[in-house]
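Training component of the fellowship. As part of building independent skills, the fellow (R.M.) carried out the full modelling exercise for a liganded target. The chosen ligand was NAI. The inputs are recorded below so that the supervisory panel can assess the work.
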Amino acid sequence: MTESVKIAVLGGGSFGTAVANIAAENGYQVSQWMRSKAAVQEIKSTRLNSRYMPGYQLSLNLLPTTDLAEAVTGASIVFVSIPSKSFRDVVARIKPFTNAEQIFVSTTKGIEGESFKLMSEIIQDELSTDNVGVLSGPNLAKEIAKRHLTASVIASTNDEHCQLVQKVLGNDYFRVYASNDTYGVELGGALKNIYAIISGLAAALGLGENTKSMLITRSLAEMSRFAVQLGANPMTFLGLSGVGDLIVTCMSPLSRNYRVGFAIGEGKNLEQAVDELGEVAEGINTLKIIRDKSIEMEVYMPLVTGLYKVLFEGATVKEVARGLMLGAHKQDVEFILKDGTQ
Ligand SMILES: NC(=O)C1=CN([C@@H]2O[C@H](COP(=O)(O)OP(=O)(O)OC[C@H]3O[C@@H](n4cnc5c(N)ncnc54)[C@H](O)[C@@H]3O)[C@@H](O)[C@H]2O)C=CC1
Ligand SMILES: O=C(CO)COP(=O)(O)O
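Fellow's submitted model of the complex:
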């Protein structure tokens, strides 16, 4: 066992399990909290979490539990891998078991609708702590399970916290880079899910490689333009948590957001597409939130607006695509201007 450092992971889904198992394989004692008693039982008896990560053999250092107090008490780092809709509830529940030294790292790529808060801001709200970080990057959980070489970003304004997370999660197939642009890293992770839905849709319609490349590149311009207006560093969007995560999520059928888009492109309605998935696709909720925010902030986001029209206003992809291709050029400069805006 590595020192006597204890790590907690909240969430029994695919990414929570990947993070928990990396730390456990690195020799840390990891307590993974999940609500399903059956999943805890399964992990204890077979070392598998078959619903979310079939075939992924879990380390004996990973201790599953349904007891929040047991998971959180005494942990040096608490990773939170709970979908954004339930994130605040779960974080509020751990407060009695926390202490002032603990570090809390969100891995969740979503936004809270009513408040427009990111998950690390929710942690700050609920736990009254500044010991907060964000883990984000091109990190498909199922590829991590196969030990494909992968990189991620730990973002925090505290360098020592970044170094600790790098040590706890880094190994010969998982490399963790550090950033102090917490807001940009976190916002990039949430925004890219919207564009993954669009890419999935385009793939199902059989659109060509030129189209895919155009979509990914214009998505990057659009998400950076929005994030810069909110104070993020545009350079962050050229890194792993920006363009890196955008590329992987827009290109891989392993992405749940891509899969939702693909199913809609095949003619299913949104409800069918989500039901069929059976896992979280954060991009749908994020789309609604960003569409409203872009109107409020008067930020030009034609792809967000177009997808919203298709998913929620009955527009066809064909008419939205035609509108985008023939739209006025006024706002379509190719890149961020020198003053950081577009
Ligand atoms: N799966 C992936 O490849 C990656 C996912 N993420 C992000 O991680 C976050 C979590 O995703 P996954 O683990 O992949 O999701 P998932 O859909 O695989 O699992 C979600 C887990 O959260 C649990 N959960 C949901 N509501 C809960 C509640 N109220 N209380 C307790 N547990 C609850 C579910 O039971 C399930 O165990 C998402 O925001 C996602 O964007 C980030 C990087 C990669
Ligand atoms: O964020 C991810 C990869 O980095 C996973 O994306 P999905 O949530 O679309 O599966």
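The panel noted the following from the submitted structure. The pocket of NAI (ligand 1) is lined by residues 11-16, 34-35, 52, 81-84, 86, 89-90, 107-110, 139-141, 279-280, 282 (CB under 6 Å). The first helix runs from residue 14 to 25.
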